[in-house]
Amino acid sequence: MSRPDSSLATRLLPWAALLLPSLFWAGNFIAGRAMRDAVTPMTLALGRWLIALACLLPFAWRGMRRDARRYLAHRWLILGTAVTGVAAFSSLVYVGLHTTTASNGLLLNSLIPLLIVLAGAVFYRQRLTLGQGVGLALSFAGVLTLVLQGQWTQWRQVSLVPGDGILLVAMVCFAFYTLWLRQLPPELDRLGLTATQIAVAILVLLPFWLAERAGGTRTEWTLASGAALAYVGIFPSVGAYLLYTRAVQHFGPARAGLSIHLIPVFGVVLSALLLHERLHAWHAAGIAAIAAGLVCSNLAPARPGALIGKTGAPAPDKPR
């Protein structure tokens, strides 16, 4: 009896790794918006990763010591992923959310899968399969349906502000993070790797936090802001990044990137549950399109060349 259960868990784990990061990151978006007036962006970003490192370090230290020499061999990839996907992405998102709307933020966030595909095609000669192309189009249409509330003529009313440009840079950073993450050797301990990336990101963020304090901005600490900081330090930081790393290993960067389209889906559900917002027919239509896009992109495993081109990294068809 234990063998079928084990086999089922093995099959479900990659899908959990694909779905849960978007849920945690949707919660991060809600928490970030709620704290934007109480907690400064650099305090939020630095505090988030300090909490994450404190949670990871006791479990990751052994792997970090074991892989220390390998980290040196891949130091530029580790530095690149730490700067783009951890330090820059989180801090730029928090800065951008101070001046842009939630709708614009969701719309720009939905560009990440497209940016991953474009960057992969331009810089790494990756080829997009038919299923991935159809899935990308369907899921992007679903995101637009959610953002525009089912009224496609409203796209003309979307106005851009400085925060939109900041968020766009953040999305580009995350696209390169996803592509570079795929090139790190799979034999590296994932807990140790994530903790190392976070430690590097903290060193990068520290001068910006000091500059923010020198500028006179202060954080307003309350029970609510402390609880929100604890959430973003544990679930979107530790849980989401570890699971997303596994999803990239299993599905490849293009497919894993498509799961980011689920962030507005979970955002809609969380808003209904926590903020008591009403659900409409266009919510169901958008969620259905996104789900169909994810299914299409994963109907058949793509060949290694379709995922990574000439990066030289192996294409893991099985979970590691």
From TrEMBL:
Annotated transmembrane regions: 12-31, 43-64, 76-94, 106-124, 133-152, 158-179, 191-211, 223-244, 256-275, 281-300
Localisation: Membrane
Membrane topology: Multi-pass membrane protein
Keywords attached to this entry: Membrane, Transmembrane, Transmembrane helix
Family annotation (Gene3D superfamilies): 1.10.3730.20
GO annotation, cellular component aspect: membrane
Keyword Transmembrane helix among record annotations: yes
Main location: membrane
Family per record: Belongs to the EamA transporter family.
UniProt-recorded name of the protein: EamA family transporter
Organism: Bordetella genomosp. 10
